[in-house]
Amino acid sequence: MNVFKFGGASIKDANGVKNLAAILNEYSKTYPVVVISAMGKTTNALEDVIDNYLYHTSALEASIQVVLDYHNTIISELFLDSEDSIFIAIASIINDLKMFLKTNASTDYNFVYDQIIGYGELLSTTIVSRYLNVLGIQNKWLDVRKYIHTDASYRRANVNWEQTVKDISTLQQHKIIYLTQGFLGANGNCTTTLGREGSDYTAAIFAYALNAKSVTIWKDVPGVLNADPRYFKDAQLLEQLSYSEAIELAFYGASVIHPKTLQPLHQKDITLFVKSFLNPLSKGTKINSDPGLVPAIPCYIVKKNQVLIQISSLDFSYIVEENISDIFNILHRFKMKVDLIQNSAISFSVCVEDVFNNLKHVLEHFSVTYNVTYIPKVTLYTVRHYNSNAINSITKNKNILLQQRTLDTLQIVTK
Ligand code: ADP
Ligand code: ASP
Ligand code: MG
């Protein structure tokens, strides 16, 4: 049994959905579980809806219409029968969203965010499931919120593995394609999410619970490359990787794989394939437990929009364990993702990602005890398996704010 995951880029328009159907048609008799994200940039469009709603702007109605129009354009191209039930189904999902906006009384940003953002996946899976069924690729649509159970950490929920595995296991050995939403989970009756780009992780959760043989994530790139082709020309395909190498690349920010995806797969030795939905017959990248699979070429990773925070003692005293513990407590409390740390006798620097918009609070807390300065919008470059050429090319013409090297990893923070 295999799990497939299709991301937003693969279904950004009607042709994308047709292409997905062609790929699934090839594999339909293996009855994969299919996990699907929101179409194209729908999640970003829903983030606009959330902000318009919570900040009471006049653009709310228009921002919902953008989401509806986008999906209507796609279904008009996919379904030639204008009486098809999909047209009512999509209108009804949007009505549910409007009903939530009308009746919701919560002002908790993260809670409201998750209740609204999940509509992207509900829309996409409803469309794709119906389209496949019309084509004769029989599938059953599942509400993932009945299977993936989480705690109430909205926007970065933690999976309750016991309950989740128990419920997903009930799907075993059915001769049908199951099709469901990535990214979402539930805490009781409330929708939760696993973090932006979390659908890869959903695929891994299903694979783990079903003891799948493999997971394939279908991407707009030939596989895992040694660099993000958006920033580096001549990026090369890495045909094979070990779990540990892949987890390092994902951790440092190679956004082609969500960093949480590898752990459940590694635990059950489930192979991960990263393949191109544009060229489905090409091999892509195979990731498994073979420890010998270290890339022979340097791998470059870019993380933009980081914040470099520099902390030093007020009275020239050492920054000791107690201070470091204090600093990390605050970073943890405000859900800052720490990507690099460096310390000296009287100073401590961290490069963080402020996913939850908490920088202001963190700085306020730090400034009670320390001198604190920060530089926003810095870029963190990481090079795994660097050599002198790689160092030269990555540091050339850059204003380097911080640099760190281990045996196999070089990191620089630049402005
Ligand atoms: P999805 O459609 O599943 O959401 P993503 O956009 O999250 O797909 O991931 C694919 C993108 O990841 C590629 O378009 C590419 O720009 C980016 N990417 C970043 N690092 C790498 C890498 N090392 N190899 C391949 N792609 C990468
Ligand atoms: N749709 C969600 C996002 O854009 C989840 C995903 O695509 O993996 O973050
Ligand atoms: Mg994505």
UniProtKB/TrEMBL annotation:
Keywords: Amino-acid biosynthesis, ATP-binding, Kinase, Nucleotide-binding, Transferase. GO terms for cellular component: cytosol. ATP binds at residue 230. Belongs to the aspartokinase family. One of its GO terms (molecular function) is ATP binding. Residues 3-276 form the Aspartate/glutamate/uridylate kinase domain. InterPro entries: AceGlu_kinase-like_sf (IPR036393), ACT-like_dom_sf (IPR045865), Asp/Glu/Uridylate_kinase (IPR001048), Asp_kin_monofn (IPR005260), Asp_kinase (IPR001341), AsparK_Bifunc_asparK/hSer_DH (IPR042199). Pfam families: AA_kinase. Pathway: Amino-acid biosynthesis; L-lysine biosynthesis via DAP pathway; (S)-tetrahydrodipicolinate from L-aspartate: step 1/4; Amino-acid biosynthesis; L-threonine biosynthesis; L-threonine from L-aspartate: step 1/5; Amino-acid biosynthesis; L-methionine biosynthesis via de novo pathway; L-homoserine from L-aspartate: step 1/3. It catalyses: L-aspartate + ATP = 4-phospho-L-aspartate + ADP. Coiled coil: none annotated. GO terms for biological process: homoserine biosynthetic process; lysine biosynthetic process via diaminopimelate; threonine biosynthetic process. This is Aspartokinase. The keyword Cytoplasm does not apply. Its EC number is 2.7.2.4.
